[in-house]
Amino acid sequence: MKDGESMFSIGDKIVYPMHGAGVIEAVEEKEILGELRKYFVLHVPYNGMKVMIPCNGASQIGVRDIIPKEQVEPVFEVLSSESTEMNHNWNRRFRENMELLKSGDIFSVSEVVRNLMRVDRVKKLSTGEKKMLSDARHILMSELLLVTKDDVEALGQRMEEEIFSIG
User: Residues 6 or more apart from 128 whose CB is under 8 A from it?
Assistant: First the structure.
């Protein structure tokens, strides 16, 4: 298996689970706890955040290329499909959704966004689930924006239309 440094390079558009999608701007060496390591510097255009990702082990933590344009419509199909059965215990539901987010899979993230937005419309989410929805929406939007090159407002509006299209 290749290490992260040989898998990705400056200019690549990648997804870092739990942080979103961005463009690798640089590779920097940093000394942390007396050890010199290389890090990708990821710029996330959606919110302007910069994230440092260790080059070695990037694939083990779920870093991947953004989806191809052909996968955008299937993502919107997930958003408009029926909600999946969620646990009634908010604590279990939270853990299950967190696992889906940690997977880094855009379809899993889409499920979390769809399900939580629909639940929130019927009964207000807990503070923890509101934060999770905000994070999941950010992760999803950041990748879709890089793939589609749409503007934030148009993409956000389309997401909401798809999610609430089934009534």
Answer: 90, 94
